[in-house]
Specification:
Layout (H helix, E strand, L loop, with lengths): L2 H16 L12 H5 L3 H15 L5 H4 L5 H11 L1
Helix pairs in contact: 1-3, 1-5
Amino acid sequence: MNRDEVVSKLIEYAAMAFNKDAASIHEDTAIADELGVQSAQRVAMTASIENDYDVMIPVARFANYKTIGDLADYIMEEA
């Protein structure tokens, strides 16, 4: 798995969780500002990430990742 593949998958998860067009999401997309902050959507995205990459992201910690790229960096470090 390389970083580009992780970013692509995270965009897919974000599009599903936040009900957005994947084409409008990119590595620099600000999760809270551009996608939303609803807890249920973050939980859905977190569950997908944890299932596919076998990493743990506590819901409270999710807010620490400002962009899709930040999340990708974390996954690359942990996976």
